[in-house]
Structure formats: structure tokens, C-alpha cells
Amino acid sequence: MNLDARSTKILEELMVNPSITSKDIEKKYDLTRRKLGYSFDKINDWLISKNLPVIERTRQGHFIIDQTIFTKLNNDHNVEPADLDIFSEKQRVYTIIMMLLSNDELSLFHFTSELDVSKNTVLSDLKRAQDYVAAYDLTIRYSRRLGYLIEGKEFLIRKLLIHVTYKILEMKNGASRLRKLTTINEDEINELTKRITKVENKLNLKFTDEKIDTMPYTLTLVLLRIKKGQKVSSFYIKYEELSDTKEYLATEEILYDIKDIPMEERLFITLHLLTTNVYWSEYLTEEAIPNLVQALDDMLRLFEKRACIFLQDREQLLNKLLLHVKPAYYRIKYQLTEINHVQDSVSKEFLALHHLVQKSTKPLAELIGMKIPESETTYLTMLIGGWLTRQGDSLQEKVKAIVVCPKGVSVSRLMVSELRELFPEFVFLDSLSVREFQAYTFDYDIVFSPIVLDTDKKLFIATSFLEREEKHRLRKQVMMELHGYIPFDINVNDLMAIVKNHATVEDEQELSKELFRYINRDDTAAVKKQQVDSPTINLSELITPNTITMKRSETTWEAAIQTASKPLIKSGCIKQDYVNAMINNYDKDPYIVIGPNIAIPHAAPDEGVNEVSMSLLQLEEGVNFTEDYSINLVVIIAAVDKQQHLKALMQLMKLAGTEEDRNAVIHASSVEEIYSIIKKYSLD
After folding, report:
1. Is residue 653 over pLDDT 60?
2. How crowded is residue 672: how many other Cβ atoms within 10 Å of its Cβ?
């Protein structure tokens, strides 16, 4: 007899965790007391059929398991493996698929004999197998002449073959079962294992134990298909892309005495080696994948910014990521990533971390040229999560906040930016519209919003544009509500003065930055006070008649940025590099549209800003900014820090939100008319 999937899981749980209680099992597997009792009876019936003692339960819900059960199921090699295997529905599906991939002329009799189940059970399992292979665009078909077989592109069949090989080898006694199903000779496996070990030495790397165990089987099964004439055709990877890699040389070494292996197949096996995970490598270079290290570094910086965490020993973490991501690069690029998600999905502890990692993978996705699949992101989350645990950081201990703003993405983004600066110790997961908030599934602690929302979490009302006094009020309110205390402000300039009294400072600017970061890592840290010596400037002081340009039209958005920037280049406030940076960034930043027909292109201060400045271009005929927006007013913003331009920006946002005056600027007939409206919004 065979156990069903639920009973199998419960027995496996008892084998690894015999001290678990009935209530724990009910909770873990979402079972009623009655369902658990039914499965428990089935487990004992199965044990009796194997001449093993039954498992007893005490009134308190504890289990009494005879040591014989552990010995027989785990250690007794005199018992036939088949007698000890407990097949779940999934394992039967994997077995059927492997039989189809490695044998010919199969009938229902072959499946019932191998699985020791009824004909009806096999028919049900065949339907499940069809659903499984359909994800690979493959079909299971039956014909009287050929029996059951899998049809589809050979490249996709290989992808399925590699995946199912892993799954069967994970089963108890998986290696012996796989050899039996496929008639693989153990000597062949041993020979390939020796050759792969030599390859490790040649490539100066070490494959993971899992890959060392599985590669000989996958390569043997691939070679068997080649011998049967089931070859990869019309291979879409050019020879030049892989032939100069170390992995291609390794493939040649593995296959040195095997004849009649077409070039396409050598490339396929090379790709298999390239997509194989490693846990150590002597040489980590990007000669094969240019800019990979930079993309990973950019990804980590994005993650640090979003998670409010500073990663220690970055170089070591980068090396670990590179070990994983180099093979992942080829898996993603050539669509060899597992179709099913990794077996163990992200735990609840890492859900928020996983979300932040997903949102930080853009540099890597841009390098590869496609979105990073969920299964690959999950591995990245595990690596980064493990690193954070090692350095003693946990997102679970941080306050997780969301911002809900009904006023559009541009206002929402500005609000998040201000709140992130106000609460640097919080993790801001997302900025959402009200409708997005109502369907939001991630766990969070607090909500910031300018409107009242229906939520059982702590809600703090905050206006879209926070004045200085309101910032101090809000921070005190939030910290008192969450922690029961009002934080005190720590002034970095005061600390700098103390340090300089007792030490020689080589780089004051960098020390100031590091002190600010360190202070704001602590839960008791406060927001850096507005510096008195950093003046704020009105809109009319930055946008003057000399920086206003009027023109009938521009052919492209890039040309509009060039034209709008000319007054600032002429005055020396910005360099051409800054203009180039704005043009390069525009398609990555739809949030620069701050209102109907008005946009504020900008870039980072270190990309070519000499002096805080702004300019305005009025276009009679709007220029297209992506497919969604037509822009009549282009306002260039060149900032030198986070403060001096903010007052002018707030005044501009207020103007952009006033339909009558915004339209008046768009339709103005002179520079003087535009400037008079700007002055109206520049009053304190």
C-alpha cells in the first residue's frame, strides 16, 4: 500500500521532529483533529504492512515512536529501497515523467507496476503529469503504436529533464531509483563524476554538492537522448557567445572520447555548466559578463537605501552574490530558470525583505535585458537575509511603514522622500494610491497619509508638503506613540567640533556624512536639524526673466531639455554633463511629471551642477514625454544639496497644482507675464 500526500508529510515530520505534538501538526498543516486522526490511522496501517510497530499517541498529544521505525526507515541497508519509499502524488508524477523521458513504448501496465498503484490512480497521475509538463509547453500523448510519450521542442524537454532529475534525486534513495527508471549504469556515473572533478580543478572552482551529485545523471541522460537521435536543433545561442568560455573547454574535456556529438549539443552542455551553481571560485572576474559586478553593487546600494540598512563587508557579500548570479545570468538570459518556484518559498520572516530585494533588482534586470524571475529573486533574498542575520540586522525589528497618497505619483514620491529623511530608522515599503492600499497584502506597522483611512494599524496624518515645524511635531508624535519617548536631536556639526578638538580630520565632509549615517541607524536617533547656514531661496530668485525661454515647439523631449538648459549653461550654473545626465535619466523616472503639462527634469548634484539654479521653457505646442504625457512647461532644477532649492520647489508644486495659474503660464504671451505669475507664488 502507499500513503497519500498528507499522511506522508505527517510521517516525515515525525521522523525529523518526534517531539512535535498533535496540536502543532494540526496548526502547521491546517488540519482538523478528525483529519489528523484519519491520517494517523493510515500511517499505522502502513507501518503494520511493513512489519513495523505502530506509533502511539498520549492524551497530551505527544507521540511515542519505537526506535525500530527510525532504524528501518533511515539506516537499515538490508531492506530493499522500494519497500521503504513512500510516494506522494508529486513524487509519482516525477516518476512518470522520468519514465516518459527515458523509455519508449510505455503503457499503463508499466506505470502501475513501477508505482504499485491502481490503474485509476495512474490515470489521475497522468493528468497531473500533463498539467506539470504543460508549463514547459510540452504534451503527453498516447498512441497504440508508440504508447505514452512526451512531445514538444527538444530544448524544452531538456529543461524538464534536468528539473525532474533534481526532484527524483531529492527523494529517499533517489539515486538508485533514478538508475532503475532509466537503466543508467553506475560505472557511467562514476566516470562522469571523475571527469567533472577534473573540470573543477581546471576552472579553479567548486560546484555545490547538490550539483556534483546531479550533474553526472543529467549529462548521462542528455547523452542517452542524443544517441537516440533526440537532438537540440536550431539552437538560438551563437557559437561565438560560448566558445571562448572556460566552460566550453570543460565540455570538450568531458566529452573528449565520445563521438558524434554535434556542435549544438556541445553548446547546450556548455550552457548547462555555465548555469550550474558554485560555492567557491578562485577567480571572480567579469571578463565573460562585463558590468556584472557594477550591476550587483548598484543593486545593493538600492537595497540599502530602501531597507535603511548599511551592509558590512560589502566586498565579501559581492563575491557571494557573484558566485550565485553568474550562473543565474545565463539561466535567466537563456530561459533555463526553473518554471516552478523554489521548493521552500520565502518564509514570513523574510517577506518584507523579499519585497525590498525585488524592488532593488532593476540594475541586474537591465544588464540581462529581462525581468528577474521569482525563483532567482528568492535565492537573492536568502543570501542577503543570511548576511543581515550574520551582522545582527533584522527587518523584523525595524518599523515598517507605507505612505498612502491620493494626489498622484509625483506628490506621493516627494512625500516618501521627506518622510524617509524624517524617519531614517524606518523601512518604507511602498507609496500607494488609496485603491492600491485597499488591496495591499504585505505586513506593515504604520501608515502615513494626508487623509483618514480604514486600517487597524497605527495611522499618522501628514500633509503632502511638510513644513519644518510640522516635521518636528510629527516625529515627536510618532516616536511617543511607538516607543513612549520623545527623541532628542543630535547635531552633527557639534560632534564634528568635538572630534576636531581632539583629533586631526583629513576629510571633514566624509566624516560628517559617516557620523550622520551612524547616528540615524540607531532607533533613538533624531533627524538632522536644518542648517542655519544653508539658505532657502524663493522661486522668483531662481526662475528669472533671464532663465525663461519661450518657443513654439520642439521635435523631441531631448531637444526640449537642451533648449531649457541653455540659460543655465550660458551662466555657468550647470555643465553640459548635467544636461546629458537628465536626458539619460528621463525614461527611467516618470515621476518628473508634477502636474498636467508640466515636468521638472533633474539629475544628481555631482553630475555637473556648479550652483543651485532653475530655468523654464514654455512651449506653445506640447512635446511628448513618453506615450502618456504632453508637456508645455519644462522646468530644469539643478540642486547642490537637499535644502537650498526645496522652498522654490514647494512654491513650484503649488503653482503646478493650481489649474488657473498653470494654464496662464502655458498660454502667456511674454516672459514678463510668466515672471509676474511666478512672483505671486514666491511670497513667504
Report:
1. yes
2. 10
